[in-house]
Amino acid sequence: RWNIETSYYEQKTFWSFCNYMVRSCKGIEMLVNLINISYCAMKILPYQNEHFSQYRTKSVQEFRFELSQGIRSQIFFTIFVKNIETHIKSNAMIKALKQLACQRVYHL
């Protein structure tokens, strides 16, 4: 029973499924499958891609947090560069910002 309670707590807290509401048996099965696929992907990725090997010993929650931070950062820089391109016509500035955005992608 304790394992079930712990799993439920982690799903709601760390995986942000607290607002995911299901009423049917099929919906519950889909939720459980989604959670399991997400968890497995986070466990396998550090072994499939050397770039993420530093996360092999970390918890899935820590890895998920780090990955989401990197994704947010990339999205921010992409939107920032697009906005700059439409408002600033300086080629040197646009080139520098694109290089910065590319560097951020490689650091993830």
Automatic annotation (TrEMBL):
Species of origin reads: Brotaphodocola catenula
> What name does the UniProt record give this protein?
Transposase
